Amino acid sequence: MLAIKNLHAGVDDKNILKGINLEVNPGEIHAIMGPNGAGKSTFASIIAGKEDFEVSQGHILLEGEDLADLDAEERAHKGVFLSFQYPVEIPGVTVTNFIKTAINQTRKAQGLDDMPAGEMLKKIKEVSELLDIDRKFLSRSLNEGFSGGEKKRNEIFQMAMLDPKLAILDETDSGLDIDALKIVANGVNKLRSKDNAVIVITHYQRLLDYIVPDFVHVLMDGKIVKSGSKELALELESKGYDWIKEEVN
């Protein structure tokens, strides 16, 4: 599904990613871990097409299509979803209206008419029940006054409604207590299927107790320096990253 080949990228003439190679197949969950400043959030932002960063070398292919010339909105329409560390508040725009607009804009980009109102309401009802979301929550302004857990749950709701091919969760566990963490993880696990894939970017092994990855990759100094199974995350939790630095050097 996703093939990243020799990816070099950065910002303001600073090279942050220095030759990343990664393949993600349908049905898989990949975890990206690494110390602060390793390039994890940059990696997520570049896949999603954020304009702040520039790719100097390499390719990002989604189902064989090079995403290089597509902006963030076009990539979203192709099925790339990015959850943010710090979701933006949009006063006056309800969660429901926001997701209706997002879905219909994607349909428009695909040459389809707006989703019929009845079908939209049915889908909202089904997804909110799947994720145990109170319908009153959906009438609130987007992220305004939301707790950290509510913001993350809202993003999982958006992900479920948009049904992306590739979901990238950028430190979605940041600032969450254990109950909120379980809610988010439960949503991700319920949405997992043989047709989609998830990249989870995290500092902490604890998230991977609830979202169990097929592969764990360690990103250091702009490169993936080690890959393994979930056991690699446990090893990082107990030993830190210094031993990998010693291996690489």
Mean pLDDT: 89
Number of distinct helices: 8
How many strand elements? Answer: 12
Considering the protein shown, what is the CATH homologous superfamily? Answer: P-loop containing nucleotide triphosphate hydrolases
The name of the CATH architecture is 3-Layer(aba) Sandwich
Number of domains: 1
Secondary structural class: alpha/beta
Give helix % range.
25-40%
The major pleated sheet works out as:
6 strands, mixed
Report the end-to-end length measured between terminal Cα atoms. 32 Å
The shape, in one word, is globular
Order of helices and strands: EEEHEEHEEHHEHEHEEEHH
Strand order of the largest sheet: 6-9-10-3-11-12
- How large, in whole angstroms, is the Cα Rg? 18 Å
CATH class: Alpha Beta
Characteristics:
alpha/beta; Rossmann fold; four-stranded antiparallel β-sheet; 28% strand; globular
Structure, described:
Helix 3 packs parallel to helix 5 (148-162). This protein has helices at residues 40-48, 72-78, 95-109, 117-130, 148-162, 178-191, 230-239, 242-248, and strands spanning 2-11, 14-24, 29-33, 54-62, 65-66, 80-83, 90-94, 141-142, 166-170, 197-201, 215-220, 223-228. It contains eight helices and twelve strands. Strand 4 and strand 5 (65-66) form a beta hairpin. The strands form three sheets. A six-stranded mixed beta sheet has the order 6-9-10-3-11-12, with helices on both faces. A four-stranded antiparallel beta sheet has the order 2-1-4-5, covered by helices on one side. It has a single domain, classed as Rossmann fold (3-Layer(aba) Sandwich). It is an alpha/beta fold and 249 residues long.
